[in-house]
Design a protein that fits this description.
NADH Oxidase; four-stranded antiparallel sheet; about 230 residues; about 10% strand; alpha+beta; binds flavin mononucleotide
Length: about 230
């Protein structure tokens, strides 16, 4: 990688890599060369981790392996089996301000897709698209040793974020997908993930279909003064 010429250019490129990342929910089927995936993972593995323990694991699925996994999961989904919770990701019960943000995200996506609020069938169909990796040619499945405490989840999150940012450098997009955790037992069987590891989430990786309505929706962020305090 050649060095950018000025500090300003570096700042712009770093900010662009971060801010151009979106949760992309429609991909072109164009394959991603294995060498590119390997490079993204190598860059991403520069993520920090407490004492550099690098606890993350990732299974990469493409081609037949990807089809086998998506078929096994959608077979359960289509049979009305919506899986089992591997771990708790969301607050229970939901409360403000998180509930309002969650609703804005859900309704924003459905509005972009032209799905009416009472149209449960189309919402269900949209949720199902998770389990096809939104047609992305590459699926990633992340797992962690079960006995590792919450610190390793922080480290794993940094690895995931690095993958999403590194992918931008290759003109690729991603969608992190906690939805897969509900089918952890099926994922474990298909990918032969050892019992001592927990499946945490999946991620779609590929070339974004920018014309798809699912990718027309952009989320917003709370202003800095709502989450940061400056102590002087
Ligand atoms: C760990 C994690 C899991 C997620 N799981 C899903 C998922 O299962 N399906 C999905 O469509 N989006 C999923 N998302 C995407 C979020 O909805 C998205 O990041 C959020 O709305 C912000 O939008 P943006 O990523 O486009 O900035 C997940 C995001 C994260 C960080």
């Amino acid at each position: 990688m050649s060095r950018p010429e000025t500090a300003e250019q570096t700042r712009w490129e770093v900010a662009e890599a971060i801010t151009s990342r979106r949760a992309v929910r429609a991909f072109h089927p164009n394959p991603v060369p294995q060498d590119t995936i390997a490079q993204i993972l190598e860059i991403a593995a520069q993520a920090p981790s407490g004492s550099n323990i690098q606890s993350w694991h990732v299974d990469v699925v493409t081609g037949q392996a990807r089809s086998q996994l998506t078929s096994a999961i959608t077979a359960r989904f289509d049979a009305g089996d919506f899986g089992e919770e591997a771990y708790q990701y969301y607050p229970d019960p939901w409360r403000e301000p998180y509930l309002a943000r969650r609703r804005a995200t859900g309704w924003g996506l459905y509005a972009a897709l032209g799905i009416a609020r009472q149209d449960k069938d189309r919402m269900h169909a949209q949720h199902r698209r998770n389990f096809l990796f939104f047609d992305a040619p590459v699926g990633l499945v992340f797992s962690l040793d079960r006995d590792l405490p919450v610190g390793s989840w922080l480290d794993c999150g940094m690895f995931l974020q690095n993958i999403m940012i590194a992918a931008r450098g290759f003109g690729l997009d991603t969608c992190p997908q906690q939805a897969f955790a509900a089918y952890h037992s099926t994922i474990r069987d298909v990918l032969d993930i050892p019992e001592n590891r927990m499946v945490i989430c999946g991620m779609a990786l590929g070339v974004a279909d920018k014309s798809d309505p699912a990718n027309q929706f952009a989320t917003e962020r709370a202003p800095t003064d709502q989450f940061a305090r400056f102590h002087k």
